[in-house]
Amino acid sequence: EGRMSVPELHSQPAPCVIVSHQSARFSRKIAIDASMSIYQFLIAVRQDGNVLQNEDGETTSHLMGMFYRTIRMLENGIKPVYVFDGKPPQLKSGELEKRSERRAEAEKQLAQAQEAGEAENIEKFNKRLVKVTKQHNDECKRLLTLMGVPYVEAPCEAEASCAALVKAGKVYAAATEDMDGLTFGSPILMRHLTANNFCHSFIFQFIDLCILLGCDYCETIRGIGPKRATDLVKQHGCIEEIIENIDTTKYPVPEGWLYKEARQLFLSPEVVDIDSVDLKWNEPDEAGLVEFMCGEKQFNEDRIRNGTKKINKSRQGSTQGRLDNFFKVTGSLSSVKRKEPETKGSAKKKQKTGATPGKFKKGK
């Protein structure tokens, strides 16, 4: 659900594959889009349709989600590095304005649902109003420090710095639900698919395809959907040539369209200084965790201490976990040879003959 299917732009299969069982073994360092994770926790970690809160009315869903998911990763041999967003690029201002408008509309719809007593709609519009705040980020940074898990503060978009960490070999893959991880050039993206060994022309075409489909940094050409956008990129190779060859009365190009600036932002994003990044997974501060999570946020002390023991246990040995415990393995985007259909009557024949005599007979 929510996956974007990437069509092939060449006769050869695109260099994007789903994470395989073989590549998902053993300990791996993974850069994770922190804001995306926190947002998911605020949406999913709820009680009676509401975010979790302590006795003081402070939201704690993000802390519970971050604490237990991180422990689960460590137990399975994954070394997470959370990357937090910095300032948004100027090109994103239009998208941020649209988001503010959608939030204002959701607030109106929520008020109407509350007045009508529509529980389902109240929950739906409440979720649409969820926003990751500076306090959420700061509290998660504090929690990660106490857990001994490193984090990185990106100067701009987290996905861009995640991609830079992968390209520099600091981590194995970038984990995000945002397809921008690909357009920022991450060699391996953990969502459901990975993308290895991109050639420059494919990256360029892929970026232009994503701009046509819609990104955070500029508008799209009205009337051009996924299929037509793919066909146009395959036929003309780039947006400049597409504009030259389409009927602009039927497909009006936005006035002052900033597609070139958006493309350049994907090709040369502002990222964290890779040479200054020194990733260390330290021992958890049990006393500090108890003071913060139990003393301040009123979590159950036994659970927090038990979680700390799991972190320590994960550090004692090299757990050979599997990444597909976290990321659904669904196969490859390249064509797969299908098994030939059985001939008529073969199923009945197998049913009659049964297993090969003398092999693996139960009780023998």
From TrEMBL:
EC number: 3.1.-.-
Pfam families documented for this protein: XPG_I (PF00867), XPG_N (PF00752)
Keywords attached to this entry: Coiled coil, DNA damage, DNA repair, DNA replication, Endonuclease, Exonuclease, Hydrolase, Magnesium, Metal-binding, Mitochondrion, Nuclease, Nucleus, Phosphoprotein
Gene Ontology annotations for the cellular component aspect, listed alphabetically: mitochondrion; nucleolus; nucleoplasm
Keyword Nucleus assigned: yes
Chief localisation class: mitochondrion
Domain XPG-I: residue ranges: 145-215
Subunit structure: Interacts with PCNA. Three molecules of FEN1 bind to one PCNA trimer with each molecule binding to one PCNA monomer. PCNA stimulates the nuclease activity without altering cleavage specificity. The C-terminal domain binds EP300; can bind simultaneously to both PCNA and EP300. Interacts with DDX11; this interaction is direct and increases flap endonuclease activity of FEN1. Interacts with WDR4; regulating its endonuclease activity. Interacts with POLB.
Region (Disordered): 332-364
Signal peptide, first to last residue: none
Gene Ontology BP, a term: DNA replication, removal of RNA primer
Subcellular location: Mitochondrion; Nucleus, Nucleolus; Nucleus, Nucleoplasm
Enzyme class, broadest EC rank: hydrolase
Protein name: Flap endonuclease 1
Co-factor: note: Binds 2 magnesium ions per subunit. They probably participate in the reaction catalyzed by the enzyme. May bind an additional third magnesium ion after substrate binding.
PROSITE patterns reported for this sequence: XPG_1 (PS00841), XPG_2 (PS00842)
Gene Ontology molecular function, alphabetical: 5'-3' exonuclease activity; 5'-flap endonuclease activity; DNA binding; magnesium ion binding; manganese ion binding; RNA-DNA hybrid ribonuclease activity
Entry's family note: Belongs to the XPG/RAD2 endonuclease family. FEN1 subfamily.
Cofactor(s) the record lists: Mg(2+)
Coiled-coil ranges from the UniProt annotation: 96-123
Residues of the XPG N-terminal domain: 4-106
PANTHER family noted in UniProt: FLAP ENDONUCLEASE 1, FLAP ENDONUCLEASE FAMILY MEMBER
Cited function: Structure-specific nuclease with 5'-flap endonuclease and 5'-3' exonuclease activities involved in DNA replication and repair. During DNA replication, cleaves the 5'-overhanging flap structure that is generated by displacement synthesis when DNA polymerase encounters the 5'-end of a downstream Okazaki fragment. It enters the flap from the 5'-end and then tracks to cleave the flap base, leaving a nick for ligation. Also involved in the long patch base excision repair (LP-BER) pathway, by cleaving within the apurinic/apyrimidinic (AP) site-terminated flap.
